[in-house]
């Protein structure tokens, strides 16, 4: 019985529509990571002392809000516009997608993040790909709590934006999701980075070759990825 069920789930996860969903997640996550990491690199290029300049935090927050709103919108009708492994995890737990489909989503998202960071590394010669760390005065536990709260707020907004009882929200739903992401960065950027997206942390760590942070491992599985905006 179990092999039969697994076989059926596998067939459902490799249909034409499912493959379109994985590709949509790849494209949307690629654009998101490219915009967020790219904006951070551009800010550091223009302001070498970005850590001491509050405008750097605003730039990263605005980039997150705009990029996430846009990428969620373009993929919403195809894949649901997750653009985040933590959102995919929540959707799988809620029974909206199967665990097997979620695994394919994660592969698409992680691969897209790596590709986006690779493109940035190759095209911006001499620029360092930012990696994610926590603020020096923060403990790993404290940063994890902050990121857990931020990720919960993001996922809660995603669920609220897709609530059928609210009717058709159109572009308002993705805008609300982007706005909460930007607000979260503004609230906790100097402390934990307000990352909320394990894919972004994964891609930058892989391309930069800096995988020491244990917080990154925690982030992949639970969405508690840590990113210091001053390092971006």
TrEMBL record:
PROSITE patterns: MIP (PS00221). Signal peptide: none annotated. It is found in: Membrane. GO terms for cellular component: membrane. It is a multi-pass membrane protein. GO terms for molecular function: water channel activity. The chain crosses the membrane at residues 22-43, 55-76, 96-120, 141-162, 168-187. The keyword Transport applies. SUPFAM superfamilies: Aquaporin-like. Keywords: Membrane, Repeat, Transmembrane, Transmembrane helix, Transport. InterPro entries: Aquaporin-like, Aquaporin_transptr, MIP, MIP_CS. Its main location: membrane. The keyword Thylakoid does not apply. It comes from the Eukaryota. Belongs to the MIP/aquaporin (TC 1.A.8) family. TIP (TC 1.A.8.10) subfamily. This is Aquaporin TIP5-1. The lineage of its organism: Eukaryota, Viridiplantae, Streptophyta, Embryophyta, Tracheophyta.
